[in-house]
Design brief:
Elements lengths: L6 E6 L3 E6 L3 E7 L2 E4 L5 E4 L1 H4 L9 E4 L2 E2 L2 E2 L2 H16 L9 E6 L5 H13 L4 E6 H8 L10 E6 L4 E7 L2 E8 L3 H16 L1 E2 L2 H11 L10 E8 L5 E7 H7 L1 H17 L2 H10 L1 E4 L8 H9 L3 E3 L6 H9 L3 H5 L10 E2 L1
Parallel strand pairs: 1-9, 9-10, 11-17, 17-18
Antiparallel strand pairs: 1-2, 2-3, 4-5, 4-6, 7-8, 10-19, 11-12, 12-13, 14-15, 15-16
Helix pairs in contact: 2-3, 4-11, 5-6
The structure holds adenosine-5'-triphosphate.
């Protein structure tokens, strides 16, 4: 861990927080979960330790996810979580050497939410806080050269939000941010299991199903998984086998909403840039893009070749960190990386 961290890039995600330290790469990747003691408000743990407590806490302990649907839903807890993560990567010197922090936010974030993220960063001990839009960070992290006057489309499917953006000359030309992403895929599985199989399953089981058999485009070979849940008829535990083909049906609604959003962005994009995108293809980032067949589905429905970026999950953190290099340019106003700004 870096003890004299001066520059930190944070992908403040709904599902996980990734921290990039200049010169070191991604040094922290933990779930966005906080556990506190309800009696005295004491912070018990953050990240993976806190996640293990989700749904399993005794009365006086509460484990929560302070970010929901890509925005801060519990400001106080987000601040405490950020502080703890910054402390982890900065070591005991962070009081003396306050880091400069750049935080990645979804492109649909409101001014009030932006302010909340900046305040959380400052309260966490940062000397300066900069914001960068998620699709811009994702594009940089995916290795796209966004400095040219050329259109690129990035589809970032995270936990709580999907950000679709057309980027050219370091800026977002057209975009959409919808609250449909990986979490809604889990919810869709829970609903499907209840509707089709009369079985109640938990979020963790749904997540496991999504990763193991989930798909949005027909697989060459069907796969199956055996899961346990509670039968809604008898109230007793029940084990059933679910197939990947069933997942196509379960995911229909969230998938269509993402495709509609992509379509909408393409429709609003100037024709020259659409022509560039047709040549360059669409790049997918974010954990949600790892659902099997997403690239094939988008290729089939848009006619534009689509690929999932290497390191899809850490692209945003890598891009956020890389953009720290141009922070000095931003101070003299020569860089306009979307709505990225400095506040302190
Ligand atoms: N191998 C995988 N297959 C399918 N889904 C996956 C896989 N790995 C991660 N995910 C899903 O990716 C989502 C998290 O993605 P990511 O870490 O990019 O989101 P985030 O940045 O925390 O969220 P947001 O961008 O909405 O704030 C979760 O819903 C998770 O279930």
């Amino acid at each position: 861990m870096c003890s004299l961290a001066k520059d930190i890039g944070i992908d403040l995600g709904t599902a996980s927080v990734l921290v990039y330290v200049k010169g070191k790469g991604v040094v922290l990747n933990e779930p966005s979960v906080v556990a506190i003691n309800k009696d005295d408000g004491r912070l018990l743990s953050v990240g993976a330790d806190a996640q293990a407590m989700l749904g399993r806490t005794p009365g006086n302990i509460v484990a929560i996810r302070p970010l929901r649907e890509g925005v801060i839903s519990d400001y106080d807890m987000t601040e405490r979580m950020l502080k703890e993560f910054i402390r982890k990567v900065s070591g005991s010197f962070h009081h003396i050497f306050k880091p400069r922090v750049i935080i990645c936010v979804p492109s649909g974030i409101t001014e009030v939410e932006e302010r909340a993220v900046v305040d959380a960063g400052l309260q966490s001990g940062a000397s300066h806080v900069y914001l960068i839009e998620e699709p811009v960070a994702a594009a940089i992290g995916a290795g796209i050269d966004i400095t040219k006057p050329e259109g690129h489309m990035v589809v970032d499917i995270g936990g709580g939000t999907s950000d679709i953006a057309v980027i050219s000359l370091k800026g977002v030309v057209e975009s959409a941010s919808i609250k449909v992403a990986g979490d809604q895929f889990n919810e869709a599985i829970v609903k499907y299991m209840r509707r089709k199989h009369n079985i109640l399953i938990g979020e963790r089981t749904a997540e496991q199903m999504k990763m193991q058999i989930g798909c949005v485009f027909p697989k060459e070979e069907e796969t199956t998984i055996e899961i346990k849940g509670r039968c809604l008829m008898t109230g007793l535990p029940k084990t059933i086998t679910v197939t990947s083909t069933e997942m196509l049906e379960a995911f229909e609604e969230p998938v269509e909403r993402i495709l509609e959003a992509i379509h909408g962005v393409l429709e609003r994009t100037p024709p020259e840039l659409v022509a560039d995108i047709a040549n360059n293809g669409i790049v997918m980032t974010g954990g949600g893009s790892l659902v099997d067949g997403f690239d094939k589905l988008i290729t089939a429905r848009t006619g534009i070749h689509t690929v999932v970026a290497e390191n899809a999950i850490s692209c945003v953190a890598i891009g956020t960190g890389k953009s720290l290099d141009s922070v000095h340019e931003m101070n003299d106003g020569t860089v306009n990386l979307s709505r990225r700004k400095q506040m302190n």
